[in-house]
Write a structure and sequence with these properties.
There is one protein chain. By secondary structure, this protein is mostly helical. The chain has one domain. The protein is built from 6 helices and no strands. Helix 2 packs parallel to helix 4 and helix 4 packs parallel to helix 6. It is globular, with a radius of gyration of 19 Å.
């Protein structure tokens, strides 16, 4: 076996980290999770509420931006012109969005528990159903699409049409997620009333 003739190709995960920027990944993953760990274990209830609201607002705002601003703007571009946008945006989204969603949901469940709400309350059940829909969309469609986009972009000859189609699908799904999140915010805003 010749030494130095073959180099191991980095895995897709490490390549996505490089495309997203390791510093961005560290901040996007560890700041929200660290804030949640602190708030849930050591902070007062208001800090847990703050983490829940801040991460939820970021998650909702980004989804609404993707669906109603970026998506329509990209839709008017040629598919080959969309690819550089997706190539820069999607690696960051693959880390940021699941973390924001996970922290928001976990903080929300912690709040329900610590504030003494019953999981059988109709408003809590509606909130859990909407959260379930959001989770299925995010982990079942958005994240797999992003992985397909990366694989295609990192291949020797990326299929521009496929990358563009999947990226546009994610932009539309982001808008749909934003609508469900607005419905969830409406339900949560009326829980104490």
């Amino acid at each position: 076996m010749a030494v130095g003739k073959t180099q191991a190709q980095p895995g897709i995960f490490s390549r996505i980290i490089q495309m997203a920027s390791p510093a961005f990944v560290l901040i996007a993953v560890f700041v929200p999770i660290g804030a949640l760990v602190y708030a849930a274990n050591f902070g007062p209830l208001v800090s847990l509420n703050y983490v829940h609201i801040l991460t939820g607002a970021m998650w909702t705002g980004i989804d609404l931006f993707m669906g109603f601003v970026l998506g329509p703007s990209l839709g008017k571009m040629e598919p080959r012109d969309r690819v550089p946008v997706f190539m820069r945006l999607m690696p960051k989204m693959a880390f940021l969005m699941p973390v924001l969603a996970g922290v928001t949901v976990t903080a929300g469940l912690q709040l329900v528990s610590r504030m003494g709400y019953s999981l059988s309350s109709p408003k809590i059940i509606i909130s859990l159903v909407i959260t379930g829909i959001l989770t299925i969309q995010g982990l079942g469609f958005l994240l797999p699409n992003e992985i397909q986009i990366y694989r295609e972009l990192l291949s020797g000859r990326p299929n521009i049409e496929k990358v563009s189609r999947l990226g546009m699908r994610n932009a539309r799904l982001g808008g749909l997620q934003g609508i469900f999140q607005l419905a969830l915010i409406f339900v949560m805003a009326t829980i104490r009333l």
